[in-house]
Design goal:
The chain is built from 28 helices and 2 strands. It has 750 residues and is mainly α.
Length: 750
């Protein structure tokens, strides 16, 4: 069929080869032009390692144009880092202190999103490079010129050489999901009021496609700015809307939907189930279409959003109806709220602070300036429970210790010690141990090859000059695909060829390389063992447990306030809900790192849907705010005795389910081995009874909210993913194979 050799390289090799070609051309051009053309060995070194640091050893996400724009932005940062490293390296104590502070700052910048995280390693290397002999501040100009030249050639290479096909932007993903929501609403507002299986499958696939793990890193809305936050909010609201539409119950038997009631006229409009005002589902359909158009760059007039607000007000005013109609209206209210949130968030994502924000509580960020939002992001992660903070502390301490040892012992080529510490330290001690074993084996093999080559060739620089470019091409092609062992072996030979051209070298250069990598990996292993050795595994479980405990408290408090009634006034968010917002941020960041870490070796463990816990947290926050924070001051009457007891009993059962799941999730020594059985009510169970005093709409709205939380708990407690989720995931992988490959490659590289 294809013979013994494949006709085309696998996608992983093709992507790595394109990347390797750009790195080789940029690094080689800067090195050869400055070394042999202008006789500037220092500038040549910085041009070579500048390109390798920012494109070979770092992993900038995105297309070539996106990476080039990112490199343009980080170039001034590189100048500052080289200047600091040059002046602080003169004394060991200042170099160690600078390594501690700068190392922490650069590692902690990962809170800004994948682009910042991808550039962090390269920027660390730009600071490490001038931190070692020769301590010559007088050569700062040549260092800056060399690094600038290397980055300039790299930027040109990224923009022009073998550009990758552009990935599907997140805005387009959200627009397609909004189009699907419009089709679902269109089908549901007419008989038979159900969605066909093909539509359900498409809705699940598009919803899964909005998950961050399914989106290329450069296109994830993970930044701290207004537009990025709003775009992430749009994706979450769209997923919520699709989920609510797929489980929307049909109208009660004998009831007339609003559109049909309006057509019937007269007495038909007063039949059971009819509501005054626009048809909610038709309004949702128009809002979804309007949202998709706005995300694609068009400027709709916003009338659909206003119409849906009127429809929602009509639903909220419906009191004198049958219990079945009130239950249906409660579900429609959740659909309308999700659609309005999607529309408003999309407007903010497109227009920024100029957008009209009718609900400042949910969209608290819409009027705030970028510095305040960044401060909120940084301060929120400034603590031991943040995985970003843990990673920054781990790597900064390891780098400072490596610089101290290299400075005290005056290790030859001490730069390699810190390079090994930086590139081989992982977020879990098990992963660090596995990585270092492979790295040391590869370095030993590479050192033997380099020593043999240096001993045979001697001082014949022409041989090294000719051999370096093809070897770099092979190194940066095979290294990312074959793993850290191959990468270290080949890179050891590369650095030997580079330094052999800068100064006369013997076979002992390979020996120094091996000893430095051994020292750097040992330092990384020590600090990986001392500082949060289990990475995000325990932190994810702990943060989800805290999230569920706070959510349980809010469920109990909300149901008690609804049952008791009282005065409600508009506020940014209900009391106590800010702690749940912070718990969600901590859980989401831990989940993001957990996805990048390899799974445990051995028998397969229970597969838990952590995404369901995050969705449950958002549903708790949004639902409680919707029930307790009105648009204008209002006095809510208390529920009847039996309705209050039913509501509080249901809320207590949902909260108990959250606490049971939290207890099983929390990584403590006395955690039960088997999960406690959950007795949270299902949607049908919670809505089955109609106790006296349940007539007010708020009772059914609260019951609908509790039912959705119970569904989230059932997903979280499931031991394996449902068949529908697996099918949807497979569909997205087939539709976007590059994204799936990107996730797998990131797992191996990190």
């Amino acid at each position: 069929m294809g013979g013994p050799f494949p006709r085309r390289l696998p996608p992983a090799y093709r992507a790595a080869a394109r990347r390797a070609l750009r790195v080789t051309i940029a690094a080689g051009t800067g090195f050869y032009v400055l070394l042999y053309g202008f006789d500037l060995p220092v500038g040549a070194t910085y041009a070579l390692f500048g390109a390798i640091a920012m494109a070979g050893l770092s992993r900038l996400p995105g297309s070539g144009r996106q990476r080039a724009m990112l490199l343009v932005g980080v170039a001034p940062v590189c100048w500052v880092l080289i200047t600091l490293g040059t002046y602080l390296s003169v004394r060991t104590w200042s170099a160690v202190l600078g390594m501690l502070v700068v190392g922490f700052a650069l590692a902690f910048m990962a809170v800004g999103g994948p682009r910042f995280a991808g550039a962090a390693t390269g920027l660390q290397l730009m600071y490490i490079l001038p931190s070692f002999p020769p301590y010559d501040p007088g050569s700062l100009g040549e260092r800056l010129a060399g690094a600038t030249f290397g980055l300039a050639v790299l930027i040109i290479a990224e923009m022009t050489l073998l550009p990758e096909p552009p990935a599907l932007p997140y805005r387009e993903r959200a627009a397609r999901a909004a189009d699907c929501a419009a089709r679902c609403a269109d089908r549901l507002h007419t008989a038979p009021y159900t969605l066909p299986e093909a539509t359900l499958h498409t809705a699940r696939a598009l919803s899964t496609g909005l998950r961050s793990s399914r989106v290329p890193e450069a296109d994830r809305p993970a930044g701290a700015g207004v537009r990025q936050r709003a775009l992430a909010h749009t994706g979450l609201a769209t997923r919520t809307l699709l989920g609510r539409l797929t489980v929307l119950p049909p109208p009660p038997q004998g009831a007339v939907p609003p559109a049909d009631a309006a057509d019937a006229g007269g007495a038909g409009g007063e039949q059971a189930g009819a509501t005054r005002g626009p048809d909610p589902l038709r309004a949702v359909m128009e809002v979804a279409r309007e949202t998709a158009a706005r995300l694609r760059g068009r400027v709709p007039d916003g009338r659909a959003h206003t119409t849906l607000q009127q429809a929602r007000q009509a639903l909220a005013a419906t009191e004198d109806s049958s219990p079945a109609t009130l239950r249906r209206n409660a579900a429609l209210l959740e659909v309308a709220d999700a659609a309005l949130a999607m529309s408003t968030a999309a407007d903010i994502a497109v227009r920024g602070r100029a957008a009209d924000v009718p609900e400042p509580g949910r969209f608290w960020y819409a009027r705030q300036r970028a510095p305040r939002l960044w401060w909120r992001r940084l301060s929120g992660h400034a603590g031991g429970r943040s995985v970003f903070f843990q990673n920054a502390v781990r790597i900064s301490l390891a780098l400072a210790a490596a610089r101290l040892i290299a400075g005290i012992d005056t290790l030859p080529h001490g730069f390699w010690v810190l390079l090994a510490t930086l590139t081989l330290t992982r977020t879990t001690v098990r992963e660090t141990r596995t990585t270092e074993r492979k790295a040391l084996t590869g370095t030993l093999v590479g050192a033997l090859v380099a020593a043999t080559l240096l001993a045979i060739v001697g001082t014949d620089i022409e041989v090294y000059a000719v051999a370096l470019p093809p070897l770099m091409l092979v190194t940066f092609t095979l290294g990312p695909v074959k793993g850290v062992g191959w990468a270290q072996a080949l890179f050891t030979v590369v650095v030997a060829l580079v330094f052999a051209q800068l100064a006369p070298a013997t076979w002992q250069l390979a020996e120094f390389r091996l000893l430095d990598v051994l020292a750097g990996s040992a330092i990384g292993a020590v600090f990986g063992l001392l500082a949060w050795p289990r990475g995000a595994h325990d932190e994810l479980r702990r943060s989800v447990a805290v999230l569920l405990r706070i959510a349980a408290e809010i469920v109990v408090a909300t149901t008690a306030q609804i049952a008791a009634g009282g005065r409600r006034v508009p506020v940014p968010t209900a009391q106590g809900h800010r702690s749940l917002q912070h718990a969600l941020v901590m859980a989401e960041s831990a989940y993001a790192q957990y996805q990048s870490e390899p799974q445990s070796i051995g028998p397969p463990t229970v597969r838990r849907d952590w995404q369901a816990a995050l969705i449950a947290g958002h549903h708790t926050l949004w639902g409680a705010d919707r029930l307790l924070v009105p648009a204008e001051p209002v006095v809510m009457p208390p529920l009847g005795r039996e309705a209050s007891e039913s509501l509080i009993r249901t809320g207590d059962r949902v909260a108990a389910g959250m606490l049971l799941t939290s207890a099983h999730t929390d990584p403590t020594e006395d955690t039960a081995e088997t999960p406690a059985p959950l007795h949270a009510p299902t949607a049908s169970a919670t809505m089955a009874a109609d106790p006296p005093g349940a007539a007010p709409r708020v009772y059914y709205a609260t019951m609908s909210w509790l039912a959705s939380l119970a569904t989230d708990l059932e997903r979280l407690a499931a031991e394996t993913a449902t068949e529908a989720e697996l099918t949807a995931t497979a569909a997205v992988s087939r539709a976007h194979p590059a994204s799936a490959l990107d996730d797998r490659r990131r797992t191996h590289e990190q």
